[in-house]
Amino acid sequence: MNGNHLFRHFMDNVQRYAEAYFELEEAQKDSSQSFIPKIGDQKTGVIGEAYIYQYLSELGHKSIEYGSASEKGWDIKYIDKNNSKEYKVQVKTVSGYSTTRIISPIHDGWDHLYLLSIDQKFIPDGLWLIDNPINIEWNVKLKDNVTNGKKSENGKKSKIEVKYLRGAKMKKNSVVDATEQQTTKLFKKATNEFEKFTKVMEKYFSEELDK
Fold first, then answer.
1. For the purposes of burial, counting CB atoms within 10 Å of the CB of 81, is it exposed (0-12), middle (13-18) or buried (19 or more)?
2. Which of 70, 166, 172, 183 registers the highest number of CB atoms within 10 A of its CB?
3. CA distances from 27 to 5, 8, 37, 57, 97 (A)
4. pTM for the full predicted model
5. 127 DSSP β-pair partners
6. Residue 53 burial by Cβ neighbours in a 10 Å radius (0-12, 13-18, 19+)
7. How far apart are CA 48 and CA 36, in angstroms?
8. Arithmetic mean of pLDDT, 8-15
9. pLDDT for 42-94, tens place per residue?
């Protein structure tokens, strides 16, 4: 192919991507598709959350719903089918296109953390589950922000505490590397959930999950 043909091929790929992106955007607006989060322009995250939402539904849990855009500590909440308690879930997704595989900061406020790896066809190829331990020492950072829309007495923006862990890197065949000690301690508590996921979600992925 010469330069012109290569660029036309590139533009064809961009057009297909744009069409798929548009379809996902429209699906997020469709109230009948409750398994898709209604917010989020990072489609890897949207896809990952939809997978976990459906997984929780297939497990038989009830009253599954997404958090609002203001929720930083959790993405999905549900009522457990076994004990009727409410649990909050945070989902972190990394795709096969990520060269660093570094996940975004993990904020406190969740009961269960799902770490999902998806390949370049956006098919899950790894899943780990972590229960929030009571004794974890979350890092406390200060961040400029307006608290409840109010300014402090001196007219400046007040400071609020933001608790999160960062520096986590999801590996290809194991859970994570982490640059911060507390993050490392947290991820040592991870259990491999992928085999259970493949059994529960087999009817949706069939051959793809067996490869």
1. exposed
2. 183
3. 33, 29, 9, 19, 23
4. 0.74
5. 116
6. buried
7. 10
8. 77
9. 788 888 899 999 999 999 999 999 998 888 889 999 999 999 999 999 999 88
Q: At 149, which helix (H) or strand (E)?
A: none
Can you tell me the distance from the alpha carbon of 63 to that of 41, in angstroms, rounded to the nearest whole number? 25
Q: Which residue has the tokens 């290569």?
A: 6
How far, in Å, CA of 118 to CA of 124, rounded?
A: 4
Give tens-digit pLDDT for 115-140.
898 888 888 888 989 888 755 555 54
CB 152 within 8 A of CB 158: yes
The one-letter code for the residue type at 143 is K
Buried/exposed code over 120-150 (b: 16+ C-beta within 10 A; e: otherwise): eebebbbbbbbebeeeeebbeeeeeeeeeee
Cα(52)–Cα(165) distance, integer angstroms: 21
Contact by Cβ (8 Å): 106, 83 = no
Do residues 113 and 106 make contact, with C-beta atoms less than 8 angstroms apart? yes
